[in-house]
Amino acid sequence: MATHPLEEILHPRSIAVVGASGGGGRGSGFLAPLVELGYRGQIYPVNPKYTEIMGIKAYASVKDIPGVVDYVISSVPASQVLGMISDSAAKGVKAIHLYTARFSETGRKEAADLEKEILNQARRAGIRLIGPNCMGVYYPGQRISFSSGMPTESGSVGLASQSGSAIHEIVDMAAQRGLRFSKAISYGNALDFNESDYLEYFAQDSETNVIMMYIEGVRDGRRFYDTLRRTTATKPVIIVKGGRGQSGIRATASHTASLAGSMQVWETMVSQAGAVSAQHPSELVDVATAFHFLPSISGRRVGVAGGAGGSSVLAADLCEEAGLDVIPLPMEIREEMKAQGSPIWDWIGNPADMSIRIDRSWDTGEMLKIMAGNPNFDLLITFVHAHFHGGQGKVSAETFLEQYRLNELNNKPLLAVMEERGQGSNNDDDHTWFRELMEEVKAGLMAAGVPGYPSIERAAGAASKLIGYYQRRESR
Amino acid sequence: MATHPLEEILHPRSIAVVGASGGGGRGSGFLAPLVELGYRGQIYPVNPKYTEIMGIKAYASVKDIPGVVDYVISSVPASQVLGMISDSAAKGVKAIHLYTARFSETGRKEAADLEKEILNQARRAGIRLIGPNCMGVYYPGQRISFSSGMPTESGSVGLASQSGSAIHEIVDMAAQRGLRFSKAISYGNALDFNESDYLEYFAQDSETNVIMMYIEGVRDGRRFYDTLRRTTATKPVIIVKGGRGQSGIRATASHTASLAGSMQVWETMVSQAGAVSAQHPSELVDVATAFHFLPSISGRRVGVAGGAGGSSVLAADLCEEAGLDVIPLPMEIREEMKAQGSPIWDWIGNPADMSIRIDRSWDTGEMLKIMAGNPNFDLLITFVHAHFHGGQGKVSAETFLEQYRLNELNNKPLLAVMEERGQGSNNDDDHTWFRELMEEVKAGLMAAGVPGYPSIERAAGAASKLIGYYQRRESR
Fold first, then answer.
1. What is the pTM of this model?
2. Contacts of residue A422 in chain B, CB cutoff 8 Å?
């Protein structure tokens, strides 16, 4: 298989930041993260007004740079782009990321014409374009980023997004859920490389296992469908579509000049291609978290434990509404509980309401263990109860987690619900201690391969979408 | 109007905790919060095994208590309840909260028979019952609580719930959103007082403005419909129904022995009665937060500002999908922007994508102000951007909030979106500082009457349900 054209572009030997400046604006904004993350190739600031920026020698033009220049980040105004491309062509540049915006998305004819002229000129020069009107590449493994605050560690999630703000939002949220990225690429107006190119790249990229996309409009529908269908045969792809309604379609036009089409056609296409739709970034991250932590799950029969009273009742409703099958507690489990002398063998159900138990022997961990051992369950969800009662003393995260018996789950997939609630204390020290405990508990769960969700409806929704993906994949 | 029977019961001169014990279990669990919150009446622990508990003189029986006993909290086993009622009757007790459980919810005939016998005996003695199988009363104004960790401050939200765990969950979540409670009552199996009694009480209660309910089954459908319809004429009522699907209905039976009916009938009833349905506790709190902070809003035309790029596009989609009307930016606003020399007057839209502005003069506060002054908007939603860039310096919450010009909003209702994301920094000190800043910003917004939501879809959903309530109320 030939190397994907983006593979070489994403491993540049050097990067020129054209339009770099010494101030706090976006000019130094593209330079600073490369310096701070420790990008290993050469960095060349380009701006005729400076001799050096951030202690690095600056050049008046790309042409003046003495060494090889593989990759250019452009934040010059739109009117200077043609000149910059011609300088880059002279220098043998392979790719340009055009942060530069105000082209077709302005709705103005002359700006759209200039955009076309830029593409033509780049094609003549053999230069590939990322953008315009985008934040470009975040590739922590190569220490390339467009923002200083992004995580420095690499992961296995790939993200292609028409929006740069969506990348910030998604990477931030995902980081809190234990996800890290192989690459995240913001591609704006998709003038040269488009959605299908980025998807094709992630499909063949050995660093990427789960693919996320934020798309406002597709440049080539047929090619995208084919690429998507091929990709989902081996890797899950989760897509948020921006521009679904009348007002959203208006907004995509002024954001990335995309022509958003009918949602019905879109949803059918995504589903037939075997991909997963998400409504918003939170759901995108929820579903990707499930794919990252959980294996393939082929059935929908869920066992739920750890809730109490009303939360158990609602857990049943919300799991069912999300498309999971909350089966009655299997008779073998009742019989085993009866044999062990449990007084609630005929009363406990699924969800297992832990508020009805009489003795300590049938705690949440015991229920999870017995459910994990039963072939009628395809997956389990547990509530991780994080309510601090002053009287109970301050336990460690290890002690807290022991009650869930995570090492006795027999590889049965488990999701944890850690609710978005306070900690039931009026004491500030308790708050701080509790928040830190819960962070450690979350880390401990993730280390054991258990993804955490802020509510049962979000856990059940993510699990259901994961199961739908694997079921469709197996049936083709 | 006659005083509601619950009014006297909720203002007891003294409380006896029968089955109190010195250990860490629920016996001292009911005593401790009364002591810790500083309940002003007499507290009498009752248990023949103790002479004192938590430093308070204990009695062998309710009969042995020297003073008046208005209210009893029972955590004795089910088998001792009849004797405890007869002691209480002799003492002139007015009401008993039966934490005691294992009655009809066990599915066992003898337990259900005992439950009936308890009701008959209480009726003969003129004693009213809360429960059984419930946590009882949280009434911060009277310093009555069933848990030490609940907020000590009072508020104007009333909550009646068949589940005690749901009260913990809802009060915790609501507290983080700036809501406090007048009373929250967990009523379990609803043997005597039922859903209609609690609703009727909150309807006439001057301390309560917004009513939340968690209901698994209704004892008297006709009475509940009538009470609900009367109540919603003056106060919003938001209801989560537990036991909606097959497995949830199974779960309600073993939780509170409720017979959950058809969901279609339920939804029609709630809607015709002018109340608001919520799917889960998070949504319940979202909607109550809107009612608490916002005035009546009669139209659905929303203006959105503060988003950037993709988040603006999705804001349009998600508002529209929630039932709001994302109108195009009114021409008068474009003309005013043009007159003031804004270069983006013909490009900016609604949602106002703040990433396209060229100069600082048209920031989010400016957009909010001009939208607030325009009669085409019924409400506004703003993103409060909480992304920390190392270079920007550490601002105060006051400075941060100034950019939103909250004092120039002309009483136009505003909701704020503060996303559930990290802070874009790899530095722990930055994290702590940033988290604290965001807490202060949230408090500042609430002080200005602006409710905060973790995502645009939740803000839009809550606003839409609030508007639906007021529209139905006005049309009857």
1. 0.94
2. 172-173, 175-176
